[in-house]
Amino acid sequence: MVPLSSATAAVLLIERTRTEQRLPSPLRIDFTSHVLAGLHTYLHCVCSQLCRRPCYCSPVLPRCPRGSPLVLDGCGCCRVCARRLGEPCDFLHVCDRSQGLICDYSSGTGGTCNFEDDEEGCEVNGRLYRDGEVFQPSCKLQCRCLDGGFTCVPLCQEDVRLPTPDCPYPRRVDIPGKCCPEWVCEAGDSNGRPLTHWAPIPFPLLCFHPAPAVPYACQPWGTEWSACSATCGVGFSTRVSNQNRYCRLETQRRLCVLRPCPALPAASPAVSDGDADASRQQLGVGMGHPSQHPVHAPSASQP
Asked: Which residues are in the IGFBP N-terminal domain (predicted)?
């Protein structure tokens, strides 16, 4: 028998299917059984010609590229590197079945490793994923394979918040044994200097981003700082920027002081009604100034 290629066997299967569809139902069953029996005999002859017994394999195992495991060849004799998605394949050089790949002869130009269900997949760090499969390349990212590519979302929060009186120095640090960094509170002494004592914060805080000494790798993009939230005294302004080590858009805040708030004069001791009226005029009560308040003094009881 003249040995035929595996591609020819695939063509025979296609032609068998087309012929079978044109036959009546009773003849179709009989035709199928004959074709399958003939194909089994053909494949047995081909395998007998390609596979030698006993096996003769190289004593040195092949060095496979990343993501390609060692598997037995089509004869079940020698260990070869499994072919990956899109690579050529044949009877001896098999595809990686652990990734759901088969040798696809539909192109007519030889076999190519492809998914069995013809779905598009994606390869990340040498590993193949099916279309629609969700995976985690690291503990900080969760990705989804879609249409030959993949999209990822962070699993670690990037929350920011202003310092509070009970936590004036929030810092984000890496905790041993945990994937995501956590916020901790650095206490301060009576003079406002930071101390080395750290205490975990049970809730997320807003982080502050001082100007980095080394520019970030991404192209700067963001909005301008907003107006200060307070017309006097300490307030804060916000902006959206990608200037962080992850180069992701986030809301950043900073403290701002437009001008000091005017101090309220201390209230004078108890005065009479006439003196109280004079005091109100001196303080500007009734002029509509929002920072002033009337000074009430006790008056003599009326008969």
From this structure: 47-116
Q: Which H or E run contains 47?
A: helix 25-50
Inside any domain, residue 110? no
Q: Which residues contact 230 (CB under 8 A, 6 or more apart)?
A: 256, 258
CATH number (domain holding residue 134):
2.10.70
**What is the domain range of residue 131?**
124-154
* Chain center to CA of 192: 38
User: pTM, whole model, 2 decimals?
Assistant: 0.29
Question: What is the DSSP track for 237-295?
Answer: EEEEE--STT---EEEEEEEESSPPPPPPPPPS---HHHHHHHHHHHTTTS--TT--PP
Angle at 119 (CA atoms; ends 115, 123), nearest 5 degrees: 70
CA pair distance 95, 99, nearest whole angstrom:
9
CA distances from 268 to 8, 134, 265, 291 (A): 109, 72, 9, 18
Distance separating alpha carbons of residues 61 and 189, to the nearest angstrom: 66
Tokens representing residue 71 in the block: 């598997």
Compute mean pLDDT per 10 residues along the chain, 303 residues long, and list them.
47 50 50 48 49 84 89 90 91 88 83 74 80 86 82 80 76 86 68 43 42 60 84 83 78 80 63 52 44 42 42
Domains contained in the chain, number: 3
Question: Could you please report the per-residue DSSP string of 183-226?
Answer: EEEEEE-TTS-EEEEEEE-SS------PPPSS--SSPP-BPPPP
**232 occurs within a structural domain:** yes
Q: Indicate which CATH number applies to the domain containing 242.
A: 2.20.100.10
**132 lies in a domain?**
yes
